[in-house]
């Protein structure tokens, strides 16, 4: 947890790497994932960088891998996951991998082309077989009805051989796609003016397209005509409609012989297709075993060359120079990675790392684990913390689920949420391995620890509220008893309990007494109770946020802001709103029905809200008889002093810091000018021992709040804006915490309505019909409980809690003007590409 208190210290380092060791060294750094490289060639075009040809080679290998992967998925061959993550291949292995991918691609391409040609031949033979079989049925039907149109003359008055030849009908046969048949028939009718006799029959089974593998439905047709001119027109129409024409002998014997020959060829071709398919399957299965490893190796290789393009070559062209941000705690790991990279390639000259001083603001890096990552993401969604700024995520791990539970307090609903979170936490290894593409599920799974804590805290607040599915539990016995006799109870619709006669003067052991569940003034009581709780938690939360600013002021050595900003802010907040919290506690403790002083008995307790309003307006309210206006002696004087002191804090917040900075600038003496150090500006310094000297780059400001270097007028404007914002926000933010009361009350009332209007419906009958009703009612009650009370109300409470942290809490000390540390890490790169 110590690492979460503020972001880690960063160092700007220069890397000096020999060209022959550059690839392996960057590969080791990518495996370590601890450095963020800077682009030293920002002005150089991407196509003019040193390793652009290597990047193109990687792109070409990725293209081949995409083609191979598409073919593997096309044949539904399973790709086994990678058990051991392969490392980036060395330069010699790259050549072998490239040649192997080239050979594999060519082999699959050849197999695909051969399969397409064989399937095309199989399709044509299948269509020919269907044409011969269907036309046989056409001719047989003609012979049965005596329509010997092929041998009879069309012109009755012409005789002789010439007339018979002119009157003889010709025909063409083929197949056409089924959806084109209507248009095909209309076109034949138009070109022949009705002189074409068309017979067609649909194929029962679909055929397979050899190119796409999709199913296509076709129809066999035979077109009878007269004359060679009409025949050429019909063939042109068939070509236009992509109809396939096949030869069909007019003789029945010839057709039978041809059908037998086609069936024999189909059987032989089918055997060749099966053998080709089996061979292709064997090739793809062997490729699929290595496909994931090849893909990872190529992506790592490409990432290495992209990173090397960020390096700069020195003037002698014998050394690559790179700059990177490194957490100082990881500097030994970086040096070890550089040494391993040099040893891997057998370089005689070691690579080394040199830490340099800089005024640039480093990136922000908060080291997290599985538990804290979700909370850190909530903070980063508002804004990445400025460098070394106090990190709110550490405190959010407790305050976030607690404030959520104040609004979501129900033992039953909290138990459901906690069980769901616990299931995701217990099964997190197997669930994370599935890598779902469902965005909603990924959000839930990323926040599994947040959900678990929110459920556990909601169970606790539900126990305090004594609320489980809108019902109370009488575990420890009520502190109230009924003093009336049976006759009074039977003849009274309602009766009141006087604390003097019905209360045992010992509160319920924990939480709300269960007797309030049956009281008519339950809502009035809970309203007052939860409203005060929300103000108490809100004021304490805001005071804690203001106090956190002291940590930033002290760390960034702006201790004058502790006196000129923090003290007036915390005094202003405490004298007004913490005093209001004090009045709530004093009222709970001092006033009682058993008090001997009449001024401190029931009915005389003044309203805290009225007292606070009178305090701010310097007014008063006449008390009732035997009662006092104030809670204790001298309260009026104390309140006037508090308000005056709080008002005096405003000019201190407004003018204190600007005037201090103005006086400090006048006392500032410029340093003596010098000609500089002899070694100034030389990059290649003696290697720094990181165990002895570590640079400590500091941000120019305390988390982005500082404007010390600006003119006095700008400082006054900024300070005026901050002062007005703070004074007004103390009021608005305190009122904003009332959402804790509003959502808690709404959740409890909605749960009670759902119980009384849905589940009670199944509890009215005591026979077998009541059992059926109970099953139905319980189904709807459970469904609405999960959908509305747990999910929708839970999401609403989550968003309101997020707002309370972002606006009301973090605005007191958090700037969030940093930029995230994005190290060069193979694991992160592969995960991002898989998500895309």
TrEMBL record:
Pfam families: V_ATPase_I. The gene is LOC112048512. It comes from Bicyclus anynana. It is a multi-pass membrane protein. One of its GO terms (biological process) is vacuolar acidification. This is V-type proton ATPase subunit a. Keywords: Coiled coil, Hydrogen ion transport, Ion transport, Membrane, Transmembrane, Transmembrane helix, Transport. It is found in: Membrane. GO terms for molecular function: ATPase binding; proton-transporting ATPase activity, rotational mechanism. The chain crosses the membrane at residues 402-426, 446-465, 533-555, 567-591, 641-662, 774-792.
């Amino acid at each position: 947890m110590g690492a979460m208190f503020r972001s880690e210290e960063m160092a700007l380092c220069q890397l000096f790497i020999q060209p022959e060791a550059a690839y392996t060294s960057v590969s080791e750094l990518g495996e370590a994932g601890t450095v963020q490289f800077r682009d030293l060639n920002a002005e150089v075009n991407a196509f003019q960088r040193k390793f652009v040809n290597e990047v193109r080679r990687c792109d070409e290998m990725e293209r081949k891998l995409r083609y191979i992967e598409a073919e593997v998925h096309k044949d539904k061959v399973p790709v086994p996951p990678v058990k051991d993550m392969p490392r980036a291949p060395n330069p010699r292995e790259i050549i072998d991998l490239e040649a192997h991918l080239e050979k594999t691609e060519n082999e699959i391409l050849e197999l695909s082309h051969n399969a397409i040609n064989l399937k095309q031949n199989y399709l044509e033979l299948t269509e020919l077989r269907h044409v011969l079989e269907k036309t046989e049925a056409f001719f047989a039907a003609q012979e049965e009805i005596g329509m010997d149109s092929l041998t009879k003359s069309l012109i009755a008055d012409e005789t002789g051989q010439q007339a018979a030849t002119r009157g003889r009908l010709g025909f063409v046969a083929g197949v056409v796609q089924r959806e084109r048949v209507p248009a095909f028939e209309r076109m034949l009718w138009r070109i022949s003016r009705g002189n074409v006799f068309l017979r067609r029959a649909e194929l029962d089974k679909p055929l397979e397209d050899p190119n796409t593998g999709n199913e296509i439905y076709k129809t066999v047709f035979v077109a009878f005509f007269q004359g060679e001119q009409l025949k050429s027109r019909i063939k042109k129409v068939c070509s236009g409609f992509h109809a396939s024409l096949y030869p069909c002998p007019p003789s029945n014997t010839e057709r039978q012989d041809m059908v037998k020959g086609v069936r024999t060829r189909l059987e032989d071709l089918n055997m060749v297709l099966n053998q080709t398919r089996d061979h292709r399957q064997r090739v793809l299965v062997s490729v699929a075993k290595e496909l994931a490893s090849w893909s990872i190796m190529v992506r790592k290789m490409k990432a290495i060359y992209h990173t090397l393009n960020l390096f700069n070559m020195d003037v002698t062209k014998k050394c690559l120079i790179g700059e990177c941000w490194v957490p100082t705690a990881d500097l030994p790991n970086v040096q070890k990675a550089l040494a391993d990279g040099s040893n891997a390639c057998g370089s005689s000259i070691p690579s080394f790392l040199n830490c340099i001083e800089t005024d640039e603001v480093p990136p922000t890096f908060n080291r997290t684990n599985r538990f804290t990552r979700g909370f850190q993401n909530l903070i980063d969604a508002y804004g990445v913390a400025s460098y070394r700024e106090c990190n709110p995520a550490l405190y959010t791990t407790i305050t976030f689920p607690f404030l959520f539970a104040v609004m979501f307090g129900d033992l039953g609903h909290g138990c459901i949420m906690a069980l769901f979170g616990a299931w995701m936490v217990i099964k997190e290894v197997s669930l994370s391995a599935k890598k779902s593409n469902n965005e909603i599920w990924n959000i839930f799974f990323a926040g599994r620890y947040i959900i678990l804590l929110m459920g556990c805290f909601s169970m606790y607040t539900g126990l305090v509220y004594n609320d489980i599915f809108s019902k109370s539990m009488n575990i420890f016995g009520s502190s109230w008893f009924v003093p009336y006799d049976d006759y009074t109870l039977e003849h009274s619709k309602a009766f009141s309990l006087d604390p003097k006669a019905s209360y045992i003067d010992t509160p319920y052991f924990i939480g709300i007494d269960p007797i309030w569940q049956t009281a008519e003034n339950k809502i009035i009581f809970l309203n007052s109770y939860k409203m005060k709780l929300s103000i108490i938690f809100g004021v304490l939360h805001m005071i804690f946020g203001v106090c956190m600013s002291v940590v930033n002021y002290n760390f960034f050595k702006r201790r004058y802001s502790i006196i000129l900003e923090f003290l007036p802010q915390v005094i202003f907040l405490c004298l007004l709103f913490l005093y209001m919290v004090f009045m709530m506690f004093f009222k709970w403790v001092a006033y009682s029905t058993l008090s001997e002083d009449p001024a401190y008995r029931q009915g005389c307790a003044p309203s805290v809200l009225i007292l606070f309003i009178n305090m701010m307006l310097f007014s008063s309210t006449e008390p009732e008889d035997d009662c006092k206006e104030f809670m204790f002696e001298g309260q009026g004087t104390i309140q006037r002093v508090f308000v005056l002191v709080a008002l005096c804090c405003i000019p201190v917040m407004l003018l204190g810091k600007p005037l201090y900075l103005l006086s400090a600038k006048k006392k500032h003496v410029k340093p003596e000018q010098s000609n500089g150090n002899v070694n100034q500006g030389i990059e290649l310094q003696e290697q720094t021992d990181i165990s002895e000297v570590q640079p400590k780059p500091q941000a120019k400001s305390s988390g982005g709040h500082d404007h010390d270097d600006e003119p006095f007028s700008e400082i006054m404007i900024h300070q005026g804006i901050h002062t007005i914002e703070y004074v007004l926000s103390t009021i608005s933010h305190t009122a904003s915490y009332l959402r804790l009361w509003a959502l808690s009350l709404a959740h409890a009332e909605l749960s009670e309505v759902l119980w009384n209007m849905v589940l009670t419906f199944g509890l009215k009958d005591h026979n077998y019909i009541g059992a059926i009703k109970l099953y139905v009612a319980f189904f709807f009650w459970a469904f609405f409980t999960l959908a509305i009370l747990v999910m929708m109300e839970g999401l609403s409470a989550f968003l309101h809690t997020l707002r309370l942290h972002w606006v009301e809490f973090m605005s007191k000390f958090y700037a969030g003007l940093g930029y995230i540390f994005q190290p060069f890490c193979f694991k992160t790169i592969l995960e991002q590409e898989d998500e895309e």
